Amino acid sequence: MAGLHKSEFANPVVNWVDTRLPIFTFMQKEYGTFPTPKNFNYLWNFGALLMVNLMIMIVTGIFLAMNYQPNVATAFDSVQHIMRDVNYGWLLRYVHQNGASMFFIVVFIHIFRGMYYGSYKAPRELLWMFGVTLLLLMMATAFMGYVLPWGQMSYWGATVITNLFSAFPIVGGPIVTWLWGGFSVDNPTLNRFFSLHYLLPFVITGVSFLHVAALHITGSNNPLGIDVKSPQDTLPFHPYYTAKDSVGLCVYLLVFALIVFFAPGMLGDPLNSVPANPLQTPAEIVPEWYFLPFYAILRSVPSKLGGVLMMFGSIAVLFVLPWLDTSKIRSARFRPVYRQLIWVWVLSVIVLGMVGGHRPEGIWVVLGRVATAYYFLHFLVILPVLGKLERPLPLPESISRPVLSLGGGPLPGGATAKPMEKV
Amino acid sequence: MRNVRSWLGAAALACSVAVPVLAPSMAMAQEVPAPAKQNWSFSGPFGSYDLASAQRGFQIYSQVCSNCHSMNLLAYRQLSGIGVSPEQIKAIAAAVTVPSGLNDQGEPVDGPGTSASTFKRPFANEKIARIANNGALPPDLSLIVNAREGGADYIYGVLTGYADPPAGMKMGDGMMYNKQYPGHQIAMPQPLHAEQIDYSDGTPNTLDQEAHDVVTFLAWASNPEMVERKQIGVRIALFLVLMTGVTYAVKRQVWADVH
Ligand code: HEM
Questions:
Q1: Which of A246, A257, A340 sits opposite B4 (nearest CB)?
Q2: Does residue A33 belong to the interface with chain B, where contact is any CB pair within 8 Å?
Q3: For a tag site, which of B30, B77, B105, B237 has the least CB within 10 Å?
């Protein structure tokens, strides 16, 4: 389809560029006039927040990399050099370090939003799978980033996690040696982790574009989970959602700032302020908080290989979630039983998080196993069966007219079809 | 549906009961008594370092701790952060002997330190340090407050936690009993005693005061950026609160015609 674009922009420079590369028209279409369901609540802010968070990580990371030295002899001190001697180096480092935690807080809420309102269901399955891919990439990036400051937890965390691959029969040992680039976590490991830690965020950026491209084909889901039926159901993205996203952005930045400026060490482990020492194993090796639920699943299974498989399985089930959930109704608002059970699943994840932070002793072992079992039960048994048994509430006719399509009388649950919030 | 709700309630209840009950027993298993909270000039969102206390702490570090502990991440010039004047810094640095490059014959020589010198280390390497300390290694103190669970309160607890071992406790060779240290056996002999330090400013030299001063100094050494960080933080937080209000008002305005 060759030929110049017929641009409608008045500004001559913009028009000149747009005629040759219709990037302004594209932005206008995708972020200006883009028809967006009018009933979003604030949970729809979190995708935009993820984009901002990614940019913050990349910018602070690039500046950190200018002063960081990926060598076992100097890595720890080079980070302290950033903290003490580089102008505003402490700010860069604390923003990057706590930015990783913020990233995971935001992505967990974003994923929960998708699960609660059924955003993974047809036709958004591919969009959802790109999302799960992004989660995996984020986890890999954060894991390798945590190794870079070369503290005790960096070193021992890297040792424990890479060693997991040794659980696989026959190929396990060689894989671990190959990952390490030697026979233990050492300088080659640190070098390659730095290289990959620099690379993966740009892969994340690329996959994010696919994620958003897929979103702009299917259009957004909304709190009612019903399709957009007429232009009355939508609003142009700008100014309505740019304004609403800005509110969320300010609150997010406020929380971020409070952590960075007043409690920058709150989420970190004190042991990472001790330089890595291969001869001294810490009493407890604990990953960063955002890995704790997965770590708990790993340790809840009595066999090492079983634990590793279950841990990867806990993400793998998310990939196939669109096919495990047999209900055609998207929003939990119209699924009286699912609406309760999703919270039990959230509880199981929280319990797993607490279990991951404690030694596998006594009650923690029991709690870990029960929560692990429930985590999988939810996806593999409850969701497939529930879709067949549950009697959904009647759906509203459209987003702009929250009236019942069936029966027409008042809702049994009273408030169920009201938009969730009025702002 | 009611079943599910009560199930959920029961589970939540079980967790909220289990956690407080279990947490202390976990701590006991590791034998790390939670350190008692102290009053620090630098705690809280507006806290900043008591500079006089930090300077007295530096005096203690120089006179006592530096015999065994290095602080490799600090240079003398950085003492300006606790209000030491450039002349004083030059004098402090000049009083120590540090390696100062090669002489005309190409041999390494020692000379007086400069403001740019890093703090003099007591031992040339780990092996010598261990030989001098009954096999134990005195850790570098540059980052010690960040490197211990409990931070400043914990370090204070160790410095003031020496006591006679309870009857029947078998102590290792050359080990001291300490109420705060995990396992209660520490290889560091009690470093601070009441009336040990001569303060030139007339501050009473109780053990509590001395420990407070040296910990204030160590807290500054671990987080020299803290005061600036909190000052910027207050301004940014206020700005963001304001921006949240403004954007919310704008949003209400934009959405006013939507029903
Ligand atoms: C998806 C985005 C990213 C995530 C989740 C992430 C995560 C992390 C984490 C958790 C750490 C350890 C922080 C600490 O404990 O000190 C770290 C360190 C580091 N990252 Fe990233 N990072 C990201 C992007 C980047 C990028 C794009 C770069 C470079 C261009 C980068 C460069 C560095 C460097 C040099 C360090 C070591 C310095 C330090 O530890 O503070 N990061 N990263």
A1: A340
A2: no
A3: B105
CB distance from A343 to chain B under 8 Å?
Answer: yes
N- to C-terminal Cα separation, chain B: 33
A-B C-beta contacts closer than 8 Å: 115
Q: What is the pTM assigned to this prediction? A: 0.91
- What whole-number distance in Å separates Cα of residue B78 and Cα of residue B80? 5
Give pLDDT tens digits for B182-230: 999 999 999 999 999 999 999 999 999 999 999 999 999 999 999 999 9
CATH fold for domain B2-74+118-224: Cytochrome Bc1 Complex; Chain D, domain 2 (1.10.760)
CB distance A200 to A140 below 8 Å:
yes
Residues of chain B with pLDDT > 70: what percent?
Answer: 88
Look up the ipTM and state it: 0.89
* Ligand 1 atom nearest A137 alpha carbon: 1
* pLDDT computed for residue A401 by the predictor: 79
- Residues of chain A with pLDDT > 90: what percent? 93
Question: pLDDT tens digits for A16-72?
Answer: 999 999 999 999 998 899 999 999 999 999 999 999 999 999 999 999 999 999 999
Q: Which residue out of A69, A197, A271 has the highest number of ligand 1 atoms within 8 Å of its CB and is therefore the one to mutate?
A: A197
Contact across the interface for A84 and B139, Cβ inside 8 Å: no
Instruction: Give residue for tokens 């211990």.
Output: B148
With a CB cutoff of 8 Å and minimum separation 6, the contacts of B12 are: A347
Nearest CA to ligand 1 atom 18: A145
Angle at A77 between CA A72 and CA A83, to 5 degrees: 140
- pLDDT tens, residue by residue, B153-190: 999 999 999 999 999 999 999 999 999 999 999 999 99
The CA distances from residue A300 to A262, A365, A389, B18, in Å, are: 36, 7, 31, 18
Asked if residues A22 and A29 have their Cβ atoms less than 8 Å apart, the reply is no
CB atoms under 10 Å from CB of B184, counted, come to 20
**Domain range list for chain B:** 2-74+118-224, 226-259
Contacts of A138 (CB under 8 A, 6+ apart): A103, A104, A107, A204
Residue B202: other Cβ atoms inside 10 A: 6
pLDDT at A422 over 60: no
Answer whether A363 sits within 8 Å of B22, measured CB to CB.
Answer: yes
- Which residues are registered as beta bridge partners of B178? B162
What are the respective helix, strand and coil percentages of chain B, to the nearest 5? 45, 5, 45
| R_g of chain A, CA atoms, integer Å | 24
pLDDT-derived band at A404, boundaries 50, 70, 90 = low
